[in-house]
């Protein structure tokens, strides 16, 4: 398998074949749910992924940010295919029915456990710089949960030269700011434009929430103080837990002092 950070056709085709086989039935059911939110998580069992494509399963452990981003893109492709199929079949849309979820995210769970995978299952006190940009599973008790805050997750911009409108995704680690391209991304007919203006009333928003997860007493040495981590929940993951509840979750760690799911 090629480096997944290279958005080549062969890499995307590999991810497409895998997710099309595993996720298409569940995705079809979720997208036809009239109550589906704008952000929708599609569950993916690691063992099922490994059975379908072991090379891809290894890659998601080695470079999770790149692979998961590619998987999210492929979910968008599958969504567009399903919408086109519905249109061809003249699917009936009920009055007042909400459009399908616009943002899809792969939610990987049930990561491998064993002596060779100890780095994936650290105690909270053992999480450190080694785990930056890695998938880990942490177990603990939620001792604090913040209120939900809003964040722009995508903004639309327009090239002042050719008028092309294009979306720009915003990331929490960038403070919700849109990082604009150096030049107009028009592909069919190259444009030399380098100035862009925001499109009014075209931004999309999502929620995020901070929780503090504390190590459980049975995982601590005698007399040791409990370690804790601040975790940031985004999109459909907000409000999944409350203070006092248990927590065990796959986690994509992005910083030393906290992490994002």
From TrEMBL:
GO terms for biological process: double-strand break repair via homologous recombination. It comes from the Eukaryota. Residues 128-244 form the MCM OB domain. Signal peptide: none annotated. Pfam families: MCM_OB. GO terms for cellular component: MCM complex; nucleus. One of its GO terms (molecular function) is single-stranded DNA binding. This is MCM OB domain-containing protein.
